[in-house]
Structure formats: structure tokens, C-alpha cells
Fold this sequence. Notes:
Blueprint: E1 3-8, H1 10-14, H2 18-28, E2 31-38, H3 42-48, H4 58-65, E3 70-76, H5 80-88, H6 101-105, E4 114-116, H7 120-130, H8 144-148
The protein binds inosine-5'-diphosphate and magnesium ion.
Amino acid sequence: MEKTFVMLKPxxxxxxxxxxxxxxxxxxxxxxxxxxxxxxxxxxxxxxxxEHVGKPFFDDLVSFITSGxxxxxxxxxxxxxxxxxxxxxxTDPQEAPTGTIRGDYGLFTGNNIVHGSDSPESAAREISxxxxxxxxxxxxxxxxxxxxxxxxx
Length: 153
Ligand code: IDP
Ligand code: MG
């Protein structure tokens, strides 16, 4: 099934939102297949946010994302990339609907709690930037037929 890279940004860690956000993905039915806490250095920030190099907010973005520990994760599920993006809400938390993670917990675009891959290409690139193959766990959960019906693929 599809995998997506999700990261709780430094504001989520500092504001005690780790459990809250992970709980939402768990309850949705997505499966956690990799997780680690780390502090991103300058070089990794440049790689992760490569598509934004040269934009006016780039320096602020890098200094924010390197400002404290983050929680990096891989979540798996049917259409996991799109599902996670919907759950996050739009980039600007002021515009994200209530009920989404950014809509419920954020007030400022720079500090918007969570990152999620926006396409299969970025998911593959981001997952391999943060995790080795060995760190991604393949396992069955007995609730899967209760989430997807009898046909789990
Ligand atoms: P996304 O996180 O919703 O995919 P992107 O456009 O990929 O949004 O931007 C990456 C991150 O850069 C955003 O999550 C946000 O933290 C930051 N960012 C994007 N646009 C702005 C802006 O106009 N001002 C300040 N920060 C921004
Ligand atoms: Mg993005």
C-alpha cells in the first residue's frame, strides 16, 4: 500500500502535540511503519526543502525546521499521501478548515505543525532522506479488514 512521509515540526514537539497528531493518523486507520525523533541540520533542511530554495521564506523555513527536535514518520494506507494531506489542511493554518490538524492547532504559516509529502515522487524522496530500508517495518494489523473491508489491497 501507499506510503507517505509525515513530520511533526518543532512547534508540535514544543507545544505537546505529538500524541494528539499521531493519534489522529492512528484513528483514521493509517498504519505507522517508521518513526524517529531527530534534530534536522542545515544540510538536511536544504535537501528536504530543496524545491523552496530561493523563495522569500526559505531562510526562515530552514531556521524554523532546524530550531528543535522533530518527529519523522512513515504512514501507510490506501491513498495515504492524499489522505494525510487532507487531514493536515492547507499550508496557511488560518485558511485550513476546522477539523484539520493545521486548522485546529495553528495560527501562522511559518509554524504549521506538520509536514506531509505532496506526491508519490516526494514521498519516495523524503522517506529515503529520513529512513533506511531497514527502518521501515512491514507488518500486518488485525484491524485491516475492519478498515478496508475484506479485500485489503
Ligand atoms: P506544505 O507544507 O503545505 O506542502 P509548501 O508550499 O511545500 O507547503 O511549503 C513548505 C513549508 O514552508 C510550509 O509548510 C510552511 O511552513 C512554509 N511556508 C510556505 N509558504 C510560506 C510563506 O509564504 N511564508 C512563510 N512560510 C511559508
Ligand atoms: Mg510541501
